[in-house]
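Format is sequence with structure; example below:
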Amino acid sequence: MTIYHRKTDPKVVGGKTLKKNNWAHSVSRAFLGPNDIFVERRNPGNGYKHVVSRRQVTAFLSLLPDWGEISRGFRGVILAEGGQGCDGWHNSGTVALCAWEQDLWISVREPYHTEHVAVFEMLGVESQCQGDEWLLKYSPQQATAFALMHVLLHELGHHHDRMTTQRQASASRGEAYAERYANEYAVTIWERYQDEFEW
């Protein structure tokens, strides 16, 4: 479980401190569209950078055809700091995309490469075998696409997993479910993505 902290002071208006982030659902989720979802951008950390913007996240969420189902219990997206040892994470209705190292050429282990090879091929990411590791040579455009078309969809897969269980308490079907969800969804919206993001 990831715990996150606010990094800026809340505003004071008329002598009263305002809440920095109001996560309370004051409007029925049935009436909220992708533009109403909160996207928080955190400092990426030294040596890291975000490969997606808030606007790109919102534009991407607008591409999802079954938004009514996905948005149930969905609180928001965090553009999180890098160096967490993962591409993203999910926690009770919140999903995160972790910042990338400044150099977009990334070394990964063989199992990671094998698991994602179809995504790399779809995005045209050049990969080079280096012993038991693979060097992935992302362009900025490819890094953005991987973060949205795979990492965000994967984390939304965990959210969907949790919301479609009886108690809605945990994403009990795990990584395999989220990975399958992301891969199937990516095929469905790839053409829409290319049009929206001028691929």
